[in-house]
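For reproducibility, we list the full input for the 4-nitrophenyl alpha-D-galactopyranoside complex.
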Amino acid sequence: MEEHAYDLAGRTVAIRAAGPPVADGDAVTLDGSLVTVEHPGPIEAFYRHGWQSWSQTRWLDPEEARQPVPVADLRAVDDDVPSALADGHVGAGVGALRGPDGTLLLGVLGLGGEVAADGGALRGTSEAADRWFVAFGPEHEVFAAYADALGAVLGRRGPLLDTRVWCSWYSFYTGITEPALHDVLDDLDGLAFDVFQVDDGWQQHVGDWQTGGDFPSGMPALASRIRDAGYEPGLWLAPFLAHSASRTAAEHPQWLLRDDTGEPVNAGWNWGGPLYALDVSQDAVLDHVEGFIRDAVDWGYSYLKLDFIYAGALPGARAGGLERHAAYRRAIERIRATVGEDVVLLACGAPVLPSIGVFDAIRVGPDVSEIWEIPHITRYLRSLSHPQARYAVATSVHRLWLQPLIGTDPDVAYFRTRYCLLTDAQKRIVQDLTRVCRFRATSDIPATLDAHERDALAAYLTEDVEVTSLGDYRYRIGGREVDFGPVAAEPPTFLPSD
Ligand code: 9PG
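The corresponding predicted structure, in tokenized form, follows.
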């Protein structure tokens, strides 16, 4: 390790890295699997970046107690398990320290890596001997500079997605059927969506991507029906998961990602049972994934929401010792090569950095919900990743710096009053965030909207409002000024520290 005192934006920053810092415009790059940079002034907050779409991302008080997650309750769907079990505050890929003098950012120029708050310093570690980016200055500027540098390494797809989606999840959940979706298509009656996206519930099982029994005419017929209604057909899949009760898990146990002892890796619990991950470092697994992705495109779906794909990057024993983020990257590149450039790929439950350059858009927060907050979930599970509109907004707002690199999906907005406990003001916050993200989606069905709400939805889909960033989490949307700062900064509802 070498120690350097480096001048950044007029302040001297102490740096420890494997070699000398290299100037990169107003910023600096460092090499190594362990780097440390010290904030030149007093600090107030640490930017903790969650590993995957649903993982908590916010500015926190570095003195704030780490919320101990009981190992038995640790959910592989919430966060990167190694970071969740770390002693201090650790985020994925990028971190920052903010003080009255400015914000110091440390971010990897690669796929993996963790950034920890270590007193007044940021400590970056990565399994690969990576390159790191360091900048000091106003928050907005250092994140923009990092995004620019990251795009040069990981690429970016253009033009950036600007889309309007009807998604079945937040009205039907897994209860979708062919007649129900036909009814919705009839009732939408020309509402100006681009995509009609069929979510979870169409398949035989999670891992068995054949048409399930509630779709007797088959998925190609449904795609034609969607196209006839004037929409692009969209389909949900969780390509790197196999439910423990799936045929795929039973028939191909050798495809499952395993740990050093040979046990299948815990990929979470959902749909009434444990989840396994596919080991995407195996060519046979990639051939299998390519097969069902190709089927979906051949059936006529041109927008794929690929969900729970953290499963491709979980820690495990992989063929040839392939690093987990590199294995994930290779797998999603294979999917992109399979579908070509014209199919829209939306990542969900996805490790954020390694998805840049391959996906058109990524979910940047946990699921919204018909309710703002369920405090006992946060209190007892200490998880900010459960469906709650408040944390969906808070995490998404802290990921808006990704916008020049990849489409940002903040999840759906609500217009309905029936079956929805959000107040008008809360609905407005979520709607405005979808405007800022240029990803306008809803699951509302006309049957649950009154005439006024339907008009509001129709106007939202066809409006042409200008959105300008004013910095500091504030935006001008049409003639209004919208401030996401208060929701973004409100401390989570944890139990009082005990
Ligand atoms: C379909 C849904 C929707 C939704 C996705 C994702 O068990 N869990 O913790 C859990 C987390 C997220 C989740 C479902 C379960 O939602 O974000 O939009 O597609 O899957 O199952």
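DSSP finds 13 helices and 27 strands in the chain. The longest strand covers residues 121-137. Both points were considered when choosing residues for closer inspection.
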